[in-house]
Amino acid sequence: MIRVEGHSNLFRDEDTGAIVNTDNNAYNQYLNSLDSRERQKQEIANLKSEIDEIKSLLKEFLNGSR
Q1: Is the pTM of this model over 0.70?
Q2: Per-domain residue ranges for the chain?
């Protein structure tokens, strides 16, 4: 592998020409951010579902009182 000039953690694969990042800490931070984003998406989906359930119950309550 050939070091990319000006970047201590980047190397070019001689066979494929691909740039390879050898910074494990940055990679782990990236994976953690993906996990965090996925958890946030799931939490938002759960909140939406709960709000829909509350709206449904309120509609039932209002229609039943008439």
Answers
A1: no
A2: 2-64
